[in-house]
Design goal:
This protein has seven helices and ten strands. Helix content is 24%, strand content 21%. The protein is an alpha+beta fold and 288 residues long. Strand 9 and strand 10 form a beta hairpin. Residues 88-95 have low confidence and may be disordered. It binds a DNA duplex (16 and 16 nucleotides) through residues 1-3, 6, 33, 59, 74-78, 106, 123-128, 143, 167-171, 175, 178, 180, 187-190, 234, 236-239, 256, 276-279.
Length: 288
DNA sequence: CACTTGACCTGTCCGC
DNA sequence: TGCGGACAGGTCAAGT
């Protein structure tokens, strides 16, 4: 579910909501699946710890504690991190909020702060996880060592982008885009959206994609991810931000989940196929 | 090593 | 309304 723009939206929300708060208690409702190393270290390194920073790398959230430990969190498909305090959030539209009373039946971990506010980790499908790791060890975990560069970094160039695909010459462009060791943070939504933007068929072999096409794809990927962050991410079913509210990128999607509708560029009916093991949305006319 | 497929879970939707 | 099957935004571990 959450890709780079969704995780970044959660990160920004949490940054304003939990930094400086101090943990009073931790409730683990689904160990060891959702919080594999919850035993032992939690008491010593989480209780009474102050939240110092909320970072993101690829689709992983990193919540740094004053004890020198970091909560490493992956939301996978259906994970949510929702903060609930005393204050009433926004007099927004009722539909803004996708979830009700917390905890609910998908709640796996609950963190209580000393000011009586709470942070809930919910995950319907239990693919996501929370791990408590020494902050200095975070760069050494397997995922961090393998994951590719951040596509939105200011110093990430089109040339670097193209070079990252050198290892995946014999697969198709969509599978390569989804490979987190090539570039970090791309998932099914923004893979389909950026390929449409660059007019490239997801079936194209990497070695057949030209330098010029890669350059366009680089810009389309960055543009679509930046737009998605601006819109607070994409809410299809489960995704919500740190306040439990939906994102609105889906209102701006060009192909994703738009099968049967007209391509906004040429009017051809958008198709949904199974490709690279995933639901894949294409305009059969303008993506070559 | 590169590549593909299935497994991990729960919930929902679609067709019969 | 009930039931089986397919499918869902992500990664791994296996297999070739």
């Amino acid at each position: 579910m959450p890709e780079l723009p969704e995780v970044e939206t959660v990160r920004r929300g949490l940054e304003t909501l939990i930094i400086g708060r101090v943990i009073r208690s931790v409730g683990v409702l689904d160990s060891p699946k959702s919080f594999p190393n919850a035993q032992g270290d939690v008491e010593e390194f989480m209780i009474h710890a102050e939240i110092r920073a909320v970072r993101r790398r690829a689709k992983v959230l990193l919540i740094d504690l004053a004890t020198g430990y970091t909560l490493v969190i992956h939301l996978k498909m259906t994970g949510q991190l929702v903060y609930r305090g005393d204050q009433v959030f926004g007099a927004g539209h009722p539909n803004d909020s996708l979830i009700g009373e917390l905890p609910d039946r998908s709640t796996r971990v609950m963190i209580e702060f000393t000011d009586n506010s709470w942070l809930y980790f919910n995950d319907q499908r239990k693919f996501g996880w929370v791990k408590l790791i020494p902050t200095i060890e975070v760069p050494n975990i397997d995922f961090m060592k393998k994951v590719g560069p951040e596509p939105l970094d200011a110093d990430f160039t089109p040339e670097q982008f193209i070079m990252r695909f050198a290892r995946r010459k014999n697969t198709n462009i969509k599978a390569a885009l989804l490979d987190q060791t090539v570039v970090a943070g791309v998932g099914n939504i923004y893979a389909d959206e950026s390929l449409w933007g660059a007019r490239i068929s997801p079936k194209r072999k990497v070695s057949d994609v030209t330098h010029g096409e890669f350059t366009v794809l680089y810009h389309e990927l960055r543009d679509v991810m930046n737009l998605a962050i601006e819109k607070g991410g994409s809410t299809d079913k489960n995704y919500v931000n740190a306040e439990g509210k939906r994102g609105s990128y889906m209102d701006f999607a060009r192909v994703f989940r738009r099968e049967g509708l007209a391509c906004p560029r040429c009017g051809t009916t958008i198709e949904k196929i199974k490709w690279a093991g995933r639901g894949t949305h294409i305009c059969p006319n303008c993506q070559k």
